[in-house]
Write a structure and sequence with these properties.
The complex is a heterodimer of chains A (about 220) and B (about 375). Chain A is an alpha/beta fold. Chain A has 8 helices and 10 strands. In chain A, the strands form 2 sheets. A 6-stranded mixed β-sheet of chain A has the order 6-7-8-3-9-10, sandwiched between helices. A 4-stranded antiparallel β-sheet of chain A has the order 2-1-4-5, with helices on one face. In chain A, strand 1 and strand 2 form a beta hairpin. The two termini of chain A are about 30 Å apart. Chain B is built from 16 helices and no strands. Chain B is globular, with a radius of gyration of 26 Å. Classes of the chains: A alpha/beta (about 220), B mainly alpha (about 375). At the A-B interface, helix 2, strand 6 and helix 3 of A face helix 9 of B.
């Protein structure tokens, strides 16, 4: 599903990532790593937001050679999403709806699932960080991407919303065979932990981690 | 309590707008000799009372002033330091309304003063209808302002429900987000550049005659305004790199993205198009209008694409804009404007397709 080839990323001459080869099959992946280890950079790189050396493929669509087809396969939500203050949730959903072409009824289901309908008409500048986070998650789930990249999806979410998100991840994997690649410093609930494979970003590269190690 | 409210809402309004009031005072009382002040203002008021259009313009200006006061009040109440004022919401409805009317009345003092003069002259000349109209108008806009303030104090944030609820837009193209950004958050910058650009174009081009037809000076000013557009582009890119980051991750083809920018810059140049269209074919020739517009459009697209080639600081980008400005002006002197515009368009397209997906964000 996700393949990384000779991926290198540097900032100002300092190498941040150096991943020779990595192939991940469909599933849910939890990326761990210390602060500054490059988790956000990796997620942004996979989302096509940053230039880098090497190539990344999702379902054989190369980010370098077929960027539009690649981007159709993925969806991304930032750790601390920011939107123009003058746009409303409705505006952003209309914008995404046009590009992502979701199946009929999906957007309404997502809005209902996260309980955001009552303030969708409000401008982004009036939303709290938790509300903005929920909106960003709804946007990330619009359409049928093969891979959803979530940077710290649990921060600023309340307990109820966290459970709803976990349920949605499980639903999307079951219904659409969607894969997830997310970073989090927070503990994820057991129900998701059982289905999750753990990765660690360490010494510029990614290593598979035994689940039991993290369970400890 | 009254003095605290006065200090927070009234005094700070006059302090913050001191420059505005000084300017108004100079315009109204500084243009004629003191001995002629009375006659001057009497004539001015007579003009209002006898010319409905003039009176309409004055009343509209007062409405704008009312909007200015309301904006100030709402903005002040949004500040965390003014949170204590929401305590006023526990007052009885009548008392709170009277307080809001008093605040509104104090903010409207300069307008009240002039409106009383207008009403006085109207009554003196037995034009009671105009006097009543002015009195009613003043009462309505003051009451509306007071009601708005009272609502804001009683229901902070309710304005969105009352005034902002609307049907969700069915389509939100990317160019429209950029246009809305400029209209909402960069009004002063865009307004200033557009006023400069359109005014200089109109004033310098309207007197061009067949005998002394020379576009070098108008183009110098026009290219200066294009140079100013660089600031607009830079702000737009900052917005994209911070709050529109998600757009880059969406599955939109390069051509469609370029199309969005092409449309955006076309719309951005609409005021100049209007002015140039107004002056064509006389006194400006059609070919020259095309050259002006094509060069402006190509420069904007080129600056847009250049911003994708590297993470520029504003100082470096300013230098690049200066360079483009220099090249542009040299080509005017050599009469190569259309050729240069074509080169700029091709370069802009090439750079965009080559660099858009690969540029490094600086935010």
């Amino acid at each position: 599903m996700l393949e990384l080839y000779q991926v290198q990323k540097s900032y100002g001459g300092q190498k941040i990532l150096d991943i020779p080869n990595l192939q991940l099959s469909a599933g849910i992946y939890w990326l761990q790593g210390a602060n500054g280890s490059g988790k956000t950079t990796l997620l942004r790189l996979l989302a096509g937001l940053l230039p880098f050396k090497g190539d990344v493929r999702v379902n054989n669509h190369s980010l370098r050679q077929t960027p539009v087809a690649y981007r159709r396969m993925i969806s991304w939500a930032d750790a601390e999403p920011l939107y123009p203050g003058f746009l409303s949730g409705d505006d952003l959903i209309s914008f995404y709806r046009k590009i992502q072409q979701p199946p009929p009824g999906q957007v309404d289901e997502l809005i209902g699932h996260f309980g955001i309908k009552s303030w969708l008409h409000s401008r982004a500048e009036t939303l709290s960080s938790g509300m903005t986070k929920k909106l960003s998650l709804v946007l990330a789930f619009i359409g049928q991407p093969s891979l959803i990249l979530l940077d710290e999806p649990l921060i600023t979410l309340d307990h109820d919303s966290t459970e709803r998100l976990i349920g949605l991840i499980a639903d999307y994997q079951r219904l659409y065979d969607t894969s997830f690649f997310f970073s989090s410093h927070q503990a994820i609930p057991d129900v998701l932990r059982q289905k999750t494979q753990f990765l660690e970003l360490k010494e510029l590269s990614i290593q598979m981690v035994n689940r039991e190690v993290w369970a400890l | 309590m009254g003095s605290i409210v006065n200090k927070t809402l009234v005094e700070s309004f006059y302090r913050q707008n001191a420059g505005f009031f000084v300017l108004l005072f100079v315009l109204f009382f500084g243009v004629v000799a003191p001995s002629e002040q009375l006659a001057y203002h009497y004539t001015l008021i007579l003009g209002m009372l006898e010319t409905p259009l003039f009176l309409g313009i004055v009343l509209f200006a007062w409405l704008l002033y009312g909007l200015k006061t309301s904006r100030f009040l709402f903005a002040t109440l949004d500040e965390p330091e003014a949170n204590f004022l929401f305590k006023l919401g526990v007052m009885s409805p009548g008392r709170l309304f009277r307080l809001c009317m008093r605040i509104q009345g104090l903010l409207f003092l300069p307008v009240w003063a002039y409106s009383f003069a207008v009403m006085g002259v109207a009554i003196y000349r037995h034009t009671y209808r105009e006097a009543l109209l002015v009195a009613l108008y003043m009462a309505v806009i003051n009451t509306a302002g007071a009601v708005g303030l009272r609502m804001r104090l009683l229901f902070p944030g309710r304005r969105w429900v009352l005034f902002m609820r609307r049907r969700p837009r069915r389509r939100v193209p990317y160019w429209s987000i950029l246009i809305r950004y400029l209209l909402k958050e960069e009004k002063a910058l865009v307004g200033g550049i557009k006023v400069f650009s359109c005014t200089t174009l109109y004033l310098l081009l309207r007197d061009q005659g067949p005998d002394d037809y020379d576009l070098r000076m108008p183009f110098l000013f026009y290219s200066l305004s294009l140079f100013g557009h660089g600031a607009i582009l830079y702000r737009c890119r900052q917005l994209e790199n911070t709050r529109l980051l998600f757009y880059r991750a969406l599955s939109v083809s390069q051509a469609a993205r370029f199309g969005q920018y092409a449309l955006f810059y076309l719309l951005l140049l609409l005021p100049e198009m209007f002015v140039l269209g107004w002056l064509t074919p006389h006194p400006i020739r059609v070919t020259d209008t095309i050259a002006f517009l094509l060069s402006g459009y190509s420069v904007l697209l080129l600056m847009n694409s250049i911003l994708y080639t590297a993470p520029f600081t504003n100082r470096v980008f300013l230098r690049l804009c200066l360079l483009i400005f220099g090249i542009l002006y040299c080509c005017v002197l050599g009469n190569y404007l259309i050729v240069l515009s074509e080169v700029f368009l091709v370069t802009a397209t090439f750079l965009f397709f080559r660099r858009y997906a690969r540029y490094e964000m600086w935010a």
